Amino acid sequence: MIKKTLSSPAAAPAIGPYSPALQAEGFVFFSGQVPFDASGAVVGQTATEQARQALTNLHHLLEAGALTSHAVVKTTVFLTDMNDFAAVNAVYAEFFEKPYPARSTVAVAGLPKGVKVEIEAIAMSE
After folding, report:
1. Which residues form the domain of 106?
2. SS3 of 43, please?
3. What CA–CA distance (Å, rounded) separates 78 from 20?
4. pLDDT in tens, 25-44
5. pTM of the complete model
6. 44-51 long-range contacts, Cβ below 8 Å, gap at least 24?
7. Where residue 73 sits, what CATH number does that domain have?
């Protein structure tokens, strides 16, 4: 199996021993995208602002693989407060069109650097 790492200088850097995205066997697996800018600083205070940055990072990684949001087949959204669900949904709808990717949304106790949102994805690369 051939695996290829995807990264983008415009997206948040990995903050540990993992690939931002890994292409393998016709799929691209995106690590959880958090609301960090390219320097690793947190962007935004609200869940809306943070979701927008996380999805912007995902967009940059999709571009690195010559893909668009239409290639995304599954996402998982992690929220530290489920009361932010509607706000994140509104931003999510700006980045994806019908047919929407399958999705899970999970409430978690905490995320890196105290952010409110993390979004991971799986896309088809072929």
Report:
1. 3-124
2. coil
3. 17
4. 999 999 999 999 999 999 99
5. 0.96
6. 46/87, 46/116, 47/79, 47/81, 47/84, 47/87, 47/88, 47/116, 47/117, 48/87, 48/88, 48/90, 48/91, 50/115, 50/116, 50/117, 51/87, 51/88, 51/91, 51/92, 51/117, 51/119
7. 3.30.1330.40
3-class state of residue 54 by DSSP:
helix
Strands of the chain (E only): list them.
3-6, 21-24, 27-33, 72-79, 102-107, 117-124
The sheet that has 3-6: what strands, in order across it? 3-6, 21-24, 27-33, 117-124, 72-79, 102-107
CA R_g for the chain: 14
φ, ψ for residue 87 (rounded to 5)?
-65, -40
76 forms bridges with which residues in the sheet? 104, 120
pLDDT tens-digit readout, 86-118: 999 999 999 999 999 999 999 999 999 999 999
For the chain, how many structural domains are there in total? Answer: 1
Quick check: 66 and 4 in contact, CB under 8 A?
Answer: no
